[in-house]
Design a protein that fits this description.
The chain has six helices and ten strands; from the N terminus they run βββαβαβαβββαββαα. It is globular. 30% of the residues lie in helices and 29% in strands. α1 (35-50) packs across α2. The strands form two sheets. It has a five-stranded mixed β-sheet, with helices on both faces. The chain has a five-stranded mixed β-sheet with strand order 8-7-6-9-10. With 210 residues, the chain is α/β, with parallel strands linked by helices.
Amino acid sequence: MKNLFIDTASGRVIIAITDDKEVISIRNEASDHQLSTRIMPLIDTVFQEAKITPKDIDVIYVVTGPGSFTGVRIGVTVAKTMAWALHKNIIPLSELELLATTPFTGDFAVSLIDARRDASFAGIYDQHGRAYLRDRYITNDDLVLQIPANSQVSYISYDTSSRFDVVEPQVDLMKMIHRHQNDTVCHPHQVKPEYLKLTEAEENLRKAQS
């Protein structure tokens, strides 16, 4: 099987073609405000390097969040559009679980994405990728309280300005794909972003309405 992998949720844009055993071609680049214009050329590049066409893929893996509202929306929209046009299915993935595929020492990986105002999108994962604390929006103080007593943790994040001493992510795409390759596939219309939090504009609107 051939797969297209799309991650645009946080600090890196990762576009890849894989098969069941390895990554065939990949682009892993810093994200920026030009993502909407960069993503299709990146996708075209990985297909060219893999020497296949979009029709040759079997499944699209897409990170649906949490993370950058704009980044998540772009990646999910592209995945859904391609899946619909090519009559392919999608397997949605968590950005925080993906971060936790980074090799780490200790009992748990605490995956973090800065949500500003001393809060994070966070999840706590063990060495097998099992969620001890499922992905959520949480204050950093409350997050610390959720860490099991007497456990050793590694904080994993692209956000180097975090209050925590973070490890730079070195994500393992094949570990993530092998973990989820037998998941129930989704029709494109079933896939939606997992923001975990309202946008600031939505929060302000709710406050105004109340």
